[in-house]
Amino acid sequence: MTDLATMRESALTRIEEAQDAAALESLRVELLGKQGSISGLMKTLGKMSPEERQSEAPKIQGLRSDVADAIAAKKDALDAAELERRLASETLDLTLPEPQSPKGSVHPVSQVMDELAEIFADLGFSVATGPEIEDDWHNFTALNMAETHPARAMHDTFYFPDVDSEGRRMLLRTHTSPVQIRSMVKQGAPIRIIAPGRVYRSDSDATHTPMFHQVEGLVIDKDINLGHLKWTLETFLKAFFERDDIVLRLRPSYFPFTEPSVEVDVGWQDVNGRRVLGGDGDAPGHGWMELLGSGMVNRRVIEFAGLDPDEWQGFAFGVGVDRLAMLKYGMDDLRAFFDGDQRWLDHYGFSPFDQPTLSAGVGASA
Amino acid sequence: MKFSLEWLKYFLDTDAGVADIAAALNRIGHEVEGIEDPAEKLEGFRVAKVLTAAKHPDADKLQVLTVDTGEGDPLQVVCGAPNARAGMKGVLGLPGAVVPANGMELRRSAIRGVESNGMMCSVRELELGEEHDGIIELPEDAPVGQTFAEYHDASPIFDVAITPNRPDCMGVEGIARDLAAAGLGTFKPVEASAIETSGPCPIEIRTDDPEGCPAFYGRVVRGVDNTKPSPEWMQRRLIAAGQRPISALVDATNYLMLAFGRPAHVYDLAKLSGAVVARRARNGETVEALNEKTYTLDDTMTVIADDNGVHDIAGIMGGEHSGATQGTTDVLLEIAYFNPERIGVTGRKLGLASDARTRFERGVDPEYLDDGLAILTSLITKTCGGEPTEVVRAGTPPTEALKIEFDPDLTERLGGLAVPQDEQRAILTSLDFEVSDDWTVTCPPRRHDIEGPADLVEEVVRIHGIDEVESTPLPRRPGVALPTATPLQQAERKLRRAAAARGLNEAITWSFLPTAEAEHFADGAQLWVLDNPISEDMKAMRPSLIPGLLSAAKRNADRGSDGARLFEIGRRYFRGANGASDEKPTLGVVLSGEKTARGWSNGKGAKFDAYDAKAEAVALLESAGAPVGNLMVMGEAGEQFHPGQSATLRLGPKNVLARFGALHPNTLKAFDIDGPVVAVEIFLDAIPAKKGGGGFARATYAPPALQDVTRDFAFLVPAELPAGDLVKAVRGADKKAIVDARVFDVFAGQGVPEGHKSVAVEVVLRPGEKTFTDEEIKAISDKIVANAAKQGAELRG
FDX-ACB domain spans which residues (chain B) (predicted)? Predict the structure, then answer.
């Protein structure tokens, strides 16, 4: 065994055994530094004869590059081990909870109103609004309820002590129907509108609140008859409940502002103890639910709105928005709608991204 | 209105069953609200006779009865009814029977130590009416031991909602006429038989108020015996209708009303003196009505009076002192026609409802005075005997029939139903309309609801079958439906979903508030305050959305909730022009309780502060399309807010788009809620409409060619200088080059002189075509420092 071979074996062994980067560095200096032993060997080459140099140089240079490679390899190994150690010390307990961000919600009444707007937009209806603090002319008289009309008393009206400049008594609208009058006066005919909004009756029990929501529909044109009313309500309810088996039952009724007047029942069926709309109400286990009031707009109302009733006719309907929401989404207590209970809003509220669209179906699945 | 099948069949010859009749009623517009089969719920109740009645040994108000049930030994029953007495017949509930009114099962029990084997029942307990003053008294001929269901004839009872336009159906006869027209059988009108009279009516009858009382007919019947009960068949029908039998005379008038829809009145002749006159009341005149309440009248009200005063609030309620009693022997029968509108006005003024008012105010049959009086007379004389006098007729009822030129094609044009002309004619005729060959339709005067051709369409359609109307699609414009939402509707939709996406829950709160809460937020505005609120808590229309949300937040806190993040989009109610309202669309936000819960990473939980409110205000304004880059932060959020932790956001000094901040401790105290609570109110009507033609293409994309340069400046400024003012001054130094300036540090304390603070601003400079030279940057920096100096700022060394 030559000296060179001994040196190589010793150097490689020591490199292999180096414990850390500092030990490896001092080894590098000892072997390859300016004063290093292998560097010293390199210097001996200059004093050699050409023949000797020719045979020794490759051996010495080979030794140097092998040692340098071994040091580099060892350094990489030590760095990798060091990184692994560091990462091991950085372990996080990912079973701990992540930062919470609050989840907001849209109220069911707003959601349903958006759904209604979407469906009726497709049928060519725009959304109209009117004041909630109304005068008795718009709320009653123009809707064919003269001051002495018994139906006025049936409305449980909230009154203000005030009168407007025309001497009309101010009140909280008892229905969205005054928007019919305001829209006809403003836009004339033909007209197709829905008018959703807050309405008020001085009534409060398990199923009535002094404030609730209604949506009014109005179509005035030249050749509109009860058949169009039926189709419109059928089409709307099918789209709203996303069911093709909605069956309507029309019953004659009475509203001062329509003639003929029609009460509309919708067939329901019992699904696990819940009344679900759909199917023929006369089928076994089914029933009828009174849902909408409607009719052909009374001539007098058309006159009051400044239109010629011999030229224009049409239909109107009204339905409770809260009721539609309850039937579709399964709430059973109207009073909770207006309480602002965070738990109820979390439970029944809608994601902001449930924007109703026709292509996805206007409803938001549970 | 309630009536039994047996009663209906008195007027209608039909083989139809209960279900068919109910379906037909619904079909023609008389909504069936319920059908009761009394036989089911009356199981265990039977006709019984009270043999003896003795005082209960230990209770003043109780009696111990022995009752014959028709089988076995008499039963001992304890009873609290004042009218229980030996010899009477009533209804006994045996142990095991379930009281219909309350679902209680009867048992053998001891009442104050005395054994009781059942219960003698009142009208209300058996759900036969509202009466509960005593137990049911059955006629003498009621067979003891018969099941009450059988005795009562167990005729199914219909409960039908009669719409207010159909007073002619507020009697069983009218319903029968409608059903016959609908093909349910043959109508059997009850003809009034001729009355044998004995001489002229002895007292004068007049109407001095022909407007309020166009017609007043009357007659006297002498020598009646009102101690006898009305006949059993009549009592049964009255009970079916929920009307307790009272006395033969009263029952006869009630029967006339319920069977024929015709209210009438019976006076005790002995209590009258002088002429009986329909006249206007005098202002301040009073009358004690049959309900034992005294009413003060005025001269808009029609009354029936004699020399001594008022005996009847015309068409609404009789007087207590001249009504028929057990001892009455001579009576005056009144049948009149009153002006419907005037009845309504009087009834509303007095707050007095009655079955008579319900009918008179909707309109009774003006042709049914003589017949009604004849039927009433014979109902009375058959039971009570007596000699009727001739009829006195004061005034004339308005019986002129309305004639309508009808176009039968209108039925299809309006009703959407093609009904053959002869069928239309048959329907109208069956409802008592006269139809001439040229379609002039003469309406029966009882049909006050018929005003014009549309009403005749309704008659034809409802009898033919309105449910047969075929769906007809509304014509629709070609192509995809056009957008319909207005800019405000679009803004509200975006805002709503933006607020929800930011973690807020949409609430809907009452539009009305307790007056004190509304005043607290009124800021001097004159509130809308209800005349007749449902409660004091719902009295004043809200001038702000914050109080309603604050109350909701408090309810949440009271339920133990950690916090609430609520928003609402709704109206605030103010005074507008000409006495109308001005309703302003508004968004309110209330953040209360914990913003973040205590957690493993940050230890303590955090509360909301005014910056959270500002964050919501600015973000939501941006969603609503407001130019938030131009907003000015100014003061005067309102006295409801913390004076030092609230602000308004404005476009220009006058246009307030929003207010936000922490609520004033006094506000929190008034609502009894723990703070801090922060709130935002955004005034949607103040947000300017978006400019531009509404095109879809965005401005051309032109990213800066060269990279931005940032420079930091630390200024020493007076403590009270708003950072916003400093930033504005900095930005103003070079409006072209400076694209952003942002405060990244605010510090006061060690190293900063008293009364000062250090504000550090990062300024972003955007080069144009060429990179900035050192000289250019220095020039801008100098300008920044100079501008800041004008605000009292000094560059820190």
Answer: 704-796
If one looks up domain B487-686 in CATH, what number appears? 3.30.930.10
Choose from A342, A343, A346, A362 for mutation: most chain B CBs within 10 A: A342
Domain map (residue ranges) of chain B: 2-37+158-185, 39-153, 205-395, 403-467, 487-686, 709-795
Is residue A215 in some structural domain?
yes
> Do A9 and A120 share a structural domain?
no
The reply to whether residue A230 touches residue B31, judged by beta carbons under 8 angstroms, is no
Across the interface, whether the CB atoms of A340 and B508 are under 8 A apart is answered yes
pLDDT at B129: 60
* pLDDT per residue as tens digits for the range B23-48: 999 999 999 999 988 777 888 899 99
| Complete DSSP assignment for B255-268 | HHHHHHS---EEEE
CB–CB contacts below 8 A, A to B: 274
Options 3.40.50.1370, 3.30.56.10, 3.40.50.300, 1.10.260.40; CATH for B403-467 is 3.30.56.10
Q: Which of B642, B631, B635 is nearest to B609 (CA)?
A: B642
Question: Is the minimum CB–CB distance between B478 and chain A shorter than 8 Å?
Answer: no
Q: Which of B462, B501, B511 sits opposite A352 (nearest CB)?
A: B501
Residue B487 contacts A where some CB pair is shorter than 8 Å: no
**A residues 319-348 near B, CB within 8 Å?**
337-343, 345-346
> Which residues of A are less than 8 Å from B485 in CB distance?
117, 121, 126-127
Q: Which residues contact B255 (CB under 8 A, 6 or more apart)?
A: B230, B234, B237, B238, B379
Same domain, A63 and A183: no
Q: Give B319's DSSP letter.
A: B
Tell me the CATH number of domain B709-795, given options 3.30.70.380, 3.40.50.360, 3.10.580.10, 3.30.70.1730: 3.30.70.380
Identify all chain B residues contacting A160, using CB atoms and an 8 Å cutoff. 528-531
Of the pLDDT bands very low, low, confident and very high (cuts 50, 70, 90), residue A1 is very low
pLDDT tens-digit readout, B159-189: 999 998 999 999 999 999 999 999 999 999 9
**Is A117 within the bounds of a domain?**
yes
Task: Report residue B666 CA to chain centroid gap.
Answer: 36
Tell if the CB–CB gap between B528 and A105 is shorter than 8 Å.
no
Residue range A206-231: mean pLDDT, rounded:
94
Is CATH 3.40.50.300 the classification given to domain B205-395? no
Residue A333 lies in a domain: yes
d(CA B30, CA B174): 11
CATH number at residue A281: 3.30.930.10
Together in a domain, A166 and A62: no
In sequence order, the 6+-apart residues with CB closer than 8 A to the CB of B136 are B90, B91, B120, B121, B122, B123, B126, B128
Domain covering B39-153, topology: OB fold (Dihydrolipoamide Acetyltransferase, E2P) (2.40.50)
Q: What is the pLDDT of residues B198-208, one digit of tens each?
A: 899 999 999 99
Residues B471-484, mean pLDDT to the nearest whole number? 91
Domain extent for A11: 3-89
This prediction has a pTM of 0.85
SS3 B117: coil
- Model confidence over B68-93: pLDDT tens digits? 988 888 989 999 888 989 999 999 99
**Contact (Cβ atoms closer than 8 angstroms) between residue A195 and residue A285:** no
Residues of chain A positioned with their CB less than 8 A from the CB of B163: 253-254
Of B342, B348, B467, the CB nearest to A153: B348
**Cβ within 8 Å, pair B29-A251:** yes
What whole-number distance in Å separates Cα of residue B177 and Cα of residue B186?
8
How many residues in total does chain A contain?
A: 366
Number of domains in chain A: 2
Angle B14-B20-B21 from CA coordinates, rounded to 5°: 60
In A, minimum Cα distance to B454 occurs at A259
pLDDT digits (tens, 9 = 90+) for B236-268: 899 889 888 899 999 999 999 999 999 999 999
